[in-house]
Amino acid sequence: MQYNENEIRRLAQLYWEGKLPLKDEVVLFEFISSNEVNKEKYRSWEEEWNLLQERDLSLNRKWRRLQNRIWVRENLSEEVAGNRLIPLWKKWSAAAAVALLIISTTIGIHELTLRNNKEIFTVDVPMGQKSKLTLPDGSAVWLNAGSQIQYTGNYNLRNRTLALTGEAYFEVAKQTNKPFIVKLRDYDIEVKGTKFNVSSYNNEKYVSASLMEGAILLRYNNKEYAMKPGETIRLDVETKQLTLHQTNTIQYRSWTEDRLEYGEITLAELFNRLSRQYNVRIHTDAAVDTNKTLCVSFNNRETIDEILYGISKVASIRYKCERNDIYVSKK
Fold first, then answer.
1. Euclidean distance between CA atoms 190 and 202, whole angstroms
2. How many CA atoms lie within 13 A of 275 on its CB side?
3. Three-class DSSP category at 322
4. Which of 104, 196, 265, 274 lies deepest, with the highest CB count within 10 Å?
5. Longest dimension (CA), the chain
6. Whole-number Å distance between alpha carbons of 131 and 106
7. Can you list the positions of beta strands (E) in the chain?
8. 83-88 long-range CB contacts below 8 Å, 24 or more apart?
9. pLDDT tens-digit readout, 140-164
10. d(C-alpha 246, C-alpha 210), whole Å
């Protein structure tokens, strides 16, 4: 069946709303991947749709921020000292508990007490999950699968510095006298009040930062790089080369809304992301061109099998699932 442009746009809207059947997802995916013109059309349609949704979601976001503030730290008993990690669970009022459980997953929060009594709070998110929390200064952080942040007990008293491994999306509360600093394995980011996404997994070739709103200052190799909204900066960990370019930054926070959206991503990067998101191991045959780039858009909380089926239609691959192991070979 042939689809005209208006019908494709209707399929796209159903897709963003989570109502598009799998058979029509394949049609939409093939349209997007067929050429650059169609890819740009899709991006333009999505941008218009997102702008309409932003107004409707604003009240929802404010409510979610309030809900995520309804947790407090428990004091640790004196008997747990040293270098062990101790669970530190949320406390919720009975009235808020039901609403929180609807939209949140339980976040694993630990406190590490060092010998000099310096407290370090660690938040870990396991593979296959993601979580959101609110920092003591009111800043919101979404943590992707396999990610960790750490900050000291004097956070928001003397500084607002935290360390990140993995991927996080930040909405930073503005404080002119206390810059918000994210320490990564290869560079630091200083923030005055903004929205941005950072990805810094230990097993990936690139470390990247994408700025949605505000301004951030990236420090690397004794140099500073000022970023503007709509820009993404990537560091090649092997070559140590930095690249700064304009992008559709909305795609980089899509994972916080249970979407998987990339205007351009290699198979290698995509398989890494799918492995973490679905807590599976993806093994690729040497014949598979993992440097091949795709335009990817999945919005309906698809299963890993549905996503791989869609990819197989445009990337000339076949796959076999055996429990938590997936074997990918050339078609």
1. 21
2. 18
3. strand
4. 196
5. 70
6. 7
7. 86-87, 108-113, 119-125, 131-134, 140-143, 147-152, 160-171, 180-183, 188-191, 195-200, 206-213, 216-220, 223-227, 231-236, 242-246, 260-266, 281-284, 293-298, 317-322, 325-330
8. 83/112, 83/113, 83/114, 83/115, 84/112, 85/110, 85/111, 85/112, 85/122, 86/110, 86/111, 88/121
9. 999 999 999 988 878 888 789 999 9
10. 9
Per DSSP, the residues of 155-174 read BTTTBEEEEEEEEEEEEPPP
Q: What is the DSSP letter of 181?
A: E
Distance CA(64)–CA(198), nearest Å, equals 22
Cα–Cα distances in Å, from 300 out to 21, 222, 307? Answer: 9, 43, 10
Residue type, 128: G
The predicted model scores a pTM of: 0.66
* Helical (H) or strand (E) element with 136: none
Residue listed under structure tokens 């935290």: 162
Structural domains in the chain? 69-257 (2.60.120.1440)
Provide the residue count of the chain: 331
Q: What span, in angstroms and rounded, lies between the C-alpha atoms of 82 and 116?
A: 10
Q: Reduce the DSSP state of residue 30 to 3 states and report it.
A: helix
Q: What confidence tens digit (pLDDT) does each residue in 217-242 have? A: 888 888 888 999 999 999 888 898 88
Contacts of 8 by beta carbon, 8 Å cutoff, 6+ apart: 27, 28, 31
* Structural tokens at position 74: 């428990």
Q: Which letter does DSSP use for residue 288 in this model? A: S
Which tokens in the block code for residue 230?
């709509």
- Six token digits for residue 111: 């406190």
Going by C-alpha positions, the residue among 50, 49, 45 that lies closest to residue 7 is: 45
CA 283 – CA 281 distance, rounded (Å): 6
The tokens describing 189, both together, are 């980011």
